[in-house]
Design brief:
Chain A: This is Gluconate 2-dehydrogenase subunit 3. The complex is a heterodimer of chains A (150) and B (539). By secondary structure, chain A is mostly helical. Chain A contains nine helices and no strands. Chain A has one domain. Chain B folds into two domains: 273 residues, FAD/NAD(P)-binding domain (3-Layer(bba) Sandwich), CATH 3.50.50.60; 153 residues, 2-Layer Sandwich (Cholesterol Oxidase, domain 2), CATH 3.30.410.40. The chains are: A mainly alpha (150), B alpha/beta (539).
Chain lengths: 150, 539
Amino acid sequence: MSEHSNIDPQSPLDAILDVLIPANPSRNIPAAGQLGVATFVTEAAAQKNALNTALIALLSRAGELADGITPDTVRQLETELPEAFNLLLVETYKGYYSRPDIRALVGVGAHPVHPAGYEVASESPELLNELTAPVRARGPVFRDPPGGQA
Amino acid sequence: MNNDPVDVLIIGAGASGAAIAWSLLETRMRILCLEQGDHLPDKDFPSRHEDYEIARYGAFSCDPNVRRLQQDYPINSDDSCITPVNWNGVGGSTINFLGHWPRMRPSDFRTKSLDGVGEDWPLDYHTLAPFYDMNDHNTGVSGLGGNPAYPDYKPPHPPIPIGKLGQTLARGFNEKGWHWWPSDVAILSEDDDGRQKCVNAGTCDLGCAAGAKGGTNFTYWPMLENAGVELRTRARVREILVDESTGFATGVLFHGADGRVHEQKAELVIVACNGVGTPRLLLNSKSRLFPDGLANRSGKVGKNLMFHPLTGVAGVFEEPMKGHEGPMACSILSQEFYESDPTRGFVRGYGLHSGRSTTPMTYALGGYGIDSPIPWGAEHREIMDNVYPYLAGLTVVTEDLPEEHNCVTLDPDLTDSDGIPAPKITYKLGDNTRAMLRHGEDRAKEVLLAAGAKRILTKGDDKVWWRAGWHQMGTCRLGNNPETSVVNSWGRCHDVKNLFIVDGSIFVTAGAVNPTSTIQALALYIGDQIKTNIATLFD
């Protein structure tokens, strides 16, 4: 059995993830732990040795901290184990924002962007004409040296 | 596999390899293109999938050292502040480029005469203009005619929307009285020739599954293969062979899809591997005649590497900018500070490019091409809820001057999966570039505030973007003097008269614009010169 399989995908990892990306209750945006990003992180750790080692070190150290998981103790983890912490942070962001439901909550389409894309209206010729009028009014803004083959 | 001799052998199926194949099609010569990568099937475009963003950090990274696919070669960038990025496959880096399509300007071809730096090109803007037009038509370029920053020309398709973000910034530029213009883009604003117009997906770097972006996988290659050009994929060229009695190239050795090394003979060899791949191949092609690498009697192969160093500034506005809607890089472009002005403390200049904002994951991880995650905790929540949606940014894209110490060499230890020595990049920013970046950052802040930004976000350091090595130029440059250049004024190697180079490596100077339209215009020009000089081509 590989070492990563000993990582419990529930707390305290959930608790750390909730600190890394907290919820916004007023907009019904869940925190990373609540959303289940721990599963994404542990699955990634099963594929990436460096992340797996980092996760074990972070969780081991977190277990030693008397105050439990708080923003202050997570900051302590970042200070004591900066490289491992950064690996976890990157994977947390990936796991959280690869979720279509989260993208929708931050204003981006939940759908695969092809083929639907987004509807963006073209500017009318009148608007483009109005916007570019001051630029055109200045005239050419380039140098055109004598040409031909050098 | 049929390795019968061909008339024309092109190495690389990217921007320039496709363009020159198209130009030579009418000669009815037998043309073969060897490409180390493969076709990208529709199902493999990340934007077809719900978790598309994550591909940016794995199999669809722009960085071959991250991607590490079978067709990629590693690049040692330990001695560089910018790492080259690319795509290896049919379409080359037009698969994951952003489609920004500005032309170089007339002064870019005369920097020595006008400003006393770099070298003059052996051809000029007006010589290339008809080939720019031809290529714009083949590629499907959208834009607005009448840009006062250029001699008159008109893109074949109307502009794509500049969007709320572009309109907001345009008003800021107008407030300052500075030049700006809707960007020319290799992205369709209307359906054309079986290709679908842009659906504003905003994921141009992940390949355009719609075919709206003018990658050569959608523009030139379908037409070329239908017309009988043979495109052989998963064929990695190991070295170019020469006849030691004549000094002519005879063909290549390549690693085929079957895992074996093959010899392919050809009358004419054209290298189209861009500013890192091309010098790598020539330096790996050593022989008794060319002990320092093929076509390298000048010693200039690999020298004068130029990128376009970048930095970015963003403004936080009061209303959402919807920056994720629309092509990533292409909204408006200011060339107010493009030409030299002695009062600025540097020569030549830069462009201010308005990108749109990236998708949430990419923003959270530091931005496109940057590995520096934004803060975690309560600050993270605040940024993603109250900053990210309101952002509009400007990228400062500077002209890089040719300097011999910036170069591509061969790494003594690192190899690709076939054991071919990998390239090593040695590159540092010049003082002129640093001064430009500082100036550009200050001007970008001014215009963002004039456009209504309530707050300005900068990186707070003088580092340039690490993964900004899209534009790889200068390492086999054009010139009339065989002592100071690798190829002549129409791309033929001074030292090997049936060997041509058609990619970004032949640029003499870099300008401060994305180079692909110029790379392809040059390839079409060289093709035209080959046809014009066909009777005396090897004299």
